[in-house]
Amino acid sequence: MAGALSVDVFRATTIFIAICCLAARVFCTNRYYGSYLTFGTGDDIIETYHMHGGTTSPIHKWNIECLDGEAVIGIRDTADDFQRIQGLWCKFMFPYKPPSSDYPYYPGCYVRNFTTHDFCYDPRDALTSPNSFMTGLWDNDFQFQVWRITTDYVQLFKCCATPANYYIDYMSCYYKMTHDQYWEYYDHVLFLMFCDTGYVVTGLGKKHNPYTTDIHLDWIQCCRVGFGPGRFPVGQLAEGLHSYGNGSAAAGYGTNPTYRSLNANAHNLPNFKSLLNNPKLALSKL
């Protein structure tokens, strides 16, 4: 009797372990492949959960980054008042761009920290940052939270230059707030924060809620993508004053169809990982 009972217990334990292993394998596989959901419409939804870490180099692909020919057009938070970023919406925006044979997908990319620098374009660096848009997101936290002052100080997003003959029309830029006038946030299981048709995300910013003093993602900047020569020449004016042409390498980027990075300053970029635990040092570097 005791022997039969031992056999039954052994069988039950074995079956239980097998089920747990199978469930873990299935769920982990679904989680990994479910991070990128690509549609035939040219839309790509990327879930950020557990896609943290990895390289911060502008010349290597990030865990959370749009695919070839795509740009970020929207962000999502399900239920936390945009105190974290749970999803990116990428869209195919450059139909005349030749397909890339390898990474990088675009002629030049660089990294911003949106705790200290909200926009892809920097008027102090007008030759290397115009006609750029958001393509990727990086965090060292698996939930991509933004509200902790010290822990979430390093919040990186990648910006890339438009392909040849495309430009960003800065005259058309506008902001979309993550909340209404009563500071009720547009968090939802669906994307409520996204740019209009033909527009891409070119910046995002955090801000203290005036009622709770908590930090939230407060807005995204959307700008229109144009094709052909820009309306105005490159100049060091303030954000949003004019557009830029990108029909040649004059804007600071190459136009080789393979889109090998020509960012000469890539080796001078700060080591963001070494700054994670030292906000004062980070502030001096960014």
Total number of beta strands = 12
Write down the overall geometry: globular
Largest β-sheet summary: 5 strands, antiparallel
Count of helix runs:
3
Rg computed from alpha carbons, rounded to a whole number of angstroms: 22 Å
The helix-and-strand class reads: alpha+beta
Largest sheet strand order: 1-2-5-4-10
Distance between the termini: 73 Å
Note poorly predicted spans. Answer: 24-32, 233-273, 281-286
* H and E string: HEEEEEEEEEEEEHH
Structural domain count: 2
Structural key phrases:
single chain; 286 residues; alpha+beta; 2 domains; five-stranded antiparallel β-sheet; four-stranded antiparallel β-sheet; 3 helices; 12 strands; globular
Folded structure, characterized:
There is one protein chain. This protein is of the alpha+beta class and 286 residues long. The chain folds into 2 domains: 1-33; 41-285, no CATH class. The protein is 15% helix and 27% strand. It has 3 helices and 12 strands. The chain has helices at 2-33, 272-275, 279-285; strands at residues 36-38, 43-47, 64-65, 70-76, 87-92, 109-113, 132-138, 156-161, 166-177, 193-194, 199-208, 215-227. A 5-stranded antiparallel sheet has the order 1-2-5-4-10, with no helix packed on it. β11 (199-208) and β12 (215-227) form a beta hairpin. Mean pLDDT is 76; it is low at 24-32, 233-273 and 281-286.
